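User: What would this chain look like folded?
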Amino acid sequence: MDDSANDHLKNNPEFVRLAKIDKQIIDSVDNLSHIKYEVGLPANYSPDKEYPILFVFHGNNWNLNISKRVWSSDILKEKFITVYLQSYMHMLYNTFQWKLNDEKTNREFKEIFDQILKEYPVNKDKVVFTSMSSGGLIAIDYAFRQFVPVSGLVLNCPVVPNVSDDLISDFVKENKKFAVITGEIDWAVNDQKDLINKIDKMGGKAKITIIEGMGHEVSKDFSALLDQYLNWILE
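Assistant: Here's the prediction, encoded as structure tokens.
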């Protein structure tokens, strides 16, 4: 939709009225909603063995089921406990979004994180975050602020929040690893490269794969790239 069409809608009283009603409905549903999650266990899972764990933050306008289809690589199936998260904040009736500095999101994620680490045999030195797009806002923010202990991140086309040099320095000092899979024409690629470069300059461990001709999307080779970076984090 071009700008003139957008301007026409914004100035249309009936559209404004319906948009206001729609927002009120979504807000009322969000007030009753909670973060959902599902746990995927590796093949031959044993409660007597410790496993690395991966938390998956979906992109905006996605849901948990889309994440389960995208994050289904060989290494995940063989080695990882995988936690697929779904925000409580609706975009449409069955798609969701993440927002930074949301008190309810922070509280509920921390409760889920603590519960899973109590319930499952997790190697607490191998906690990994992964995300698509705006899920990267949360994954990066939580990891660099040390909201919960994280050893590494593998992010696909992440939207990058502001991260202070002090937080990057702390991330590097703790020997954490940061990997990005992105597209050459992803609209967020410059911010992604900037964060990678800052980590590099401080002597940290950061890698990026930039796929020629790809935009803000998931590569057809995503599973192979994901496994490559997960193995790197587990080293």
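The longest helix spans residues 13-32. If you want, I can go into more detail on any region.
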